[in-house]
Amino acid sequence: VNIVNEAAMQRRDDAQKRVRVNGAGLDVRDLPSFGFSHRSLMWWGTFGLIAIESTAFALAIVMYFYLRSHVEVWPLTTPPPALLWGSVNTVILLASMWPNRAAKQAAEKLDLAGVQRSLLGCCLFSAAFLAVRAVEFASLNVRWDTDAYGSIVWLLLGLHTTHIATDAWDTLVLTALMHTNRIEGKRYVDVSENSLYWYFVVLSWIPIYGVIYWAPRLH
Amino acid sequence: MKVYPVDPPVPAPRLATVRPGADEAAALEQTWSDPPGLLGWLASINHKSIGRRFIVTAFGFFVAGGLLAALMRLQLARPQNTLIGPDFYNQLFTMHGTTMMFLFAVPVMQAVSVYLVPLMLGTRSIAFPRLNAYAYWVYLLGGLMLYIAFLLNTGADAGWFAYPPLSGPEYSPGKRVDFWAQMITFTELSALVEAIVLITTVFKLRAPGMTLNRIPLFVWAMLVTAFMVLFAMPSVMLASTALILDRLVGTHFYNPAENGDALLWQHLFWFFGHPEVYLIFVPGLGFISAIIPTFARRPIFGYSAMVLSLIATAFLAFGLWVHHMFATNLPELGKSFFTAVSMMIAIPTAVQIFCWIATLATGRLNFKTPLLFVLAFFFILLMGGLTGIMLASVPLDLQLHDTYFVVAHLHYVLIGGAVFPLFGVIYYWFPKFTGRLMSERLGRWNFWLFFIGFNVAFFPMHWLGLKGMPRRVYTYPADQGWDAMNLVATLGAVTIAISVLLFIINVWRSVRHGAPAGDNPWGASTLEWATTSPPPAANFVQLPVVHGREPLWEAWPNPRFVTGLALNQREMLTTTVLDALPDHRVVFPVPTLWPFVGAVATTVLFVGSIFTPWAVVWGSIPVAAALTAWFWPKRNETRGHLALEKQP
After folding, report:
1. Closest CA to B562 of B31, B9, B24, B8
2. pTM of the model
3. Which residues of A touch B560 (CB under 8 A)?
4. A56–B230 C-beta distance less than 8 A
5. Measured between beta carbons, which residues in chain B are less than 8 angstroms from residue A155?
6. How many CB pairs under 8 A join A and B?
7. pLDDT tens, position by position, B264-312
């Protein structure tokens, strides 16, 4: 995941050559009509969303350890969550970065067929881990109303599930759109930033996975 | 650094002088106008329309919250008064605090910037204009929900910071606190969305040449505030979500019986709540930095120091939340740390105050109403700051905790730091909003009654607090020696109410009969004064190119304006983040009803969830449908965009 997109920087610098000063006017008609990475407004919107969601995840993890710091035994009365499905889903989520990366690269090359293909791959992965996520809830070995431990575990998993569900819907809509004839340059930017957000949803899962599944096993 | 003339060159260089024919203006007006009719009104996404509504709505809530305060003051005017009973009084102070903090103070700052920031940056629109409209509707509907519940005797009653266990299911049965918690979800969603919108606008839509070290201090303040929102608001959303889950589905976050912890709420709430004070105060600083140079008729002293101080304030604001919790059993060493930070944050504020004083001292002052409100800030905020230093010390705080001393302190800080400058802002920018000046004579009455009324109302509260009068009591016995001061405070409150009434009359009359303002009635230096008052739908007929920090006070060499953008589509120019070099062109979306529909669907989800958790599941379907329809491009839009397309 490269934060500063070198190609985008280069293209941004090239854009300067397309601006002409014409007396009192600064003529911008030859500038490109879209740009990838931090050149695009969509990147900044996504960046803001990621900042907000990261803060929410971080604070939820702080809540977890705050509650844990007040008791001797943790989990309080129940066994820790079963490892199997959470770990399976971690593998699926990590693997889903591959079609997302493919979609991002195809988008930045304006390769429509590649975008369509890899977005379909992304959708399949979304379906897979949403299904596994349902099983994950069932294998937490605790209910949200059992005790404070149950509450925070459900909050963490619920919070992350909200993110993958919304991004799965997002990806589905984008996939449908990229199969219509309403395609223009900035749709490729949308695909690229959708993948960026996807990376965030996957990478933020890793600490949450550690907290939900491994923190109760460490003493 | 460049030496600026003390007086703006008269006439200041105006874009009008380089404007081409009327055809271009007419075409732009047609492209950027809101659609007609009621549906057009609901579909509007123009940042000026939304900004105006946002400001009016926030002032509506300000008046509502003020009326609640007036009722409280009437009840407390004499001992053992029976005007208002304890249950209604609990709702009054909760609704007052909630309204002022969540429905007025934070939103009004964002509202002002929604209107002004794009104009100050020399661009045609705010970024993500549909999202901006959605944020407004969500805010309006959330505020209405809280007030409708209040009118149905379901007003929140656990204090504006709703500490559990009082706000938990055991001690607050019924739906009152649930409405409060969902109001948080509404307003914070709106504020977070606005923060993203503003950050993107400031970073990507500035006029060419407006490098980061040339943007107006007002915009810097709004940018810093927006970043603070990103990191502060998630905390209270998480806190209130956990609270409502405790209340509705039986989780135990704050329930000690099941190993939850009530203090967890206080940490989460104040991790948001203290930065929130600065979400209100930092825009106030920006207001002052906009007004002072204009009325001192010289550029601000110490621009870089001012910017760095704003950023330092933002960082420090996240390090002092525990000073609201000195009365809890936290480690003493920890409290010392928070005392130190609480005192440290005075440093960047002092830097700014000295810079303003230097600006005022070396300028030639033009004593108009906006400047009066700013000068009052110095006096009132200083008082609030001094009692803040007192409260930052743990032993004194323990003594004064939950007394009227704290009530006095917080009103001096918030009203002095934000509301006085805000009134100045309305007088200052009203001519830009409406094309007419407000009455100076009424303005002076408004100011002096507010200034005197404020001090008469709140200064005695210091003394009441020191005498031991607790906050949030609906009445008090006659033998405590509190009677006279309470009566004085009530008289002060009535004076404030009269002053606000004069303000409303002034606005009402000036909209119709005010003196025509012209483009730049105060001789100010920033770009919003380079266009007509009120600005055209597209803000500027020709987008300006910027060559300095005070564009209207400086020579304006070529190139002076941007050419080559389409007139028949909402085409704009984006610029690079640091240097504001032209980056690419972008076509902005057209008005649509979907943000409004999306906000209604969101309201159904949030309000429904108070009554059944399944509302979250079923309610998300219309939300998803509305947001998808919002995003889905129309065929003719795509065709239009393709006509302008050039690849990078």
Report:
1. B24
2. 0.95
3. 24-25
4. no
5. 241-242, 245, 251, 253
6. 208
7. 999 999 999 999 999 999 999 999 999 999 999 999 999 999 999 999 9
